[in-house]
Design brief:
The protein has one domain. Helices cover 57% and strands 8% of the residues.
């Protein structure tokens, strides 16, 4: 006995709906799913070759933040880097996308989110990498980095590398752009109840005086570019937080500790995997 056409149509519709819902759930949770499979179940070899794994670890060993981590901390950081690389589309615009390039860019994102369990920088989907600074029609000037509201990030590879080669100067293009993407992922304007958003609001309140000082020309700590607007001041703050924490906490302790709350970590506590 065959099913009526209406019943067949209903079964197909339910099936398609369930498939769509499962796909949406996977898309939204793919970072968490992949990390669970790789870090906790050990399925990393199913996603990336042994040769590439060794190349990525070799590059990570050159990064100061990673060097300071414990064995378990290094494993956690490395697996987060793998997940970031898997879930973002990298496009080399006149440059070869080697493991070195992808690793440094991915490490920039992981450094910010390292101690925020379950949080990933999801806003960025496409990362365009250039061999030098590039003209931006949007900004109407050359840019070393750019993060758009549409989920695209532009990065100058030499400036990414320079940021990690000089880890104590308060200038790191990768961290700067990922700081923008971090906030765009949160969308605090529409999710103000989020704990991290509350901490960012606190940062904005305690950093107003420092921003005004920078606008007035005081570049004794924060660089001039931070005076462009509060969004750029935020990104410059994050750079200094990770690269100049000793000086930061002495000059602006309230701002420093507000950023500790945002990222749930303390860059001065390297001996304990930056635990807050």
């Amino acid at each position: 006995m065959s099913l009526p056409h209406d019943a067949i149509f209903a079964v197909i519709l339910i099936g398609l709906t369930l498939f769509l819902l499962l796909y949406i759930a996977f898309y939204v949770l793919r970072d968490v799913i992949y990390f669970f499979l790789i870090h906790y179940l050990g399925f990393i070899n199913q996603f990336i070759s042994t040769e590439n794994q060794l190349n990525i670890i070799s590059e990570l060993k050159k990064i100061k933040y990673y060097q300071n981590l414990s064995i378990s901390g290094k494993s956690f950081f490395y697996h987060r880097v793998i997940v970031f690389m898997m879930n973002k589309h990298f496009f080399g615009d006149g440059i070869n996308l080697s493991n070195e390039v992808k690793t440094y860019i991915s490490a920039s994102a992981v450094q910010l989110t390292f101690r925020i369990r379950g949080f990933y920088i999801e806003h960025i989907q496409l990362i365009r990498v250039f061999p030098k600074a590039i003209w931006s029609q949007l900004a109407q000037h050359e840019v070393k980095g750019l993060t758009t509201g549409g989920g695209v990030m532009w990065l100058s590879w030499p400036d990414i590398k320079k940021g990690f080669d000089f880890p104590d100067d308060g200038i790191n293009l990768g961290i700067h752009e990922m700081a923008h993407a971090f906030k765009l992922t949160l969308r605090c304007e529409s999710a103000s109840g989020h704990q991290i958003c509350t901490s960012i609001t606190k940062w904005a309140a305690v950093s107003k005086y420092a921003f005004i000082k920078l606008e007035e020309g005081d570049t004794s700590f924060f660089r001039k570019y931070g005076a462009t607007n509060m969004e750029e001041f935020w990104a410059v703050n994050v750079e200094c937080f990770f690269e100049k924490p000793e000086e930061f906490i002495k000059l602006y302790p309230e701002i420093y500790f507000s950023l500790c709350k945002v990222f749930n970590q303390n860059p001065l506590n390297a001996i304990n995997d930056y635990e807050l």
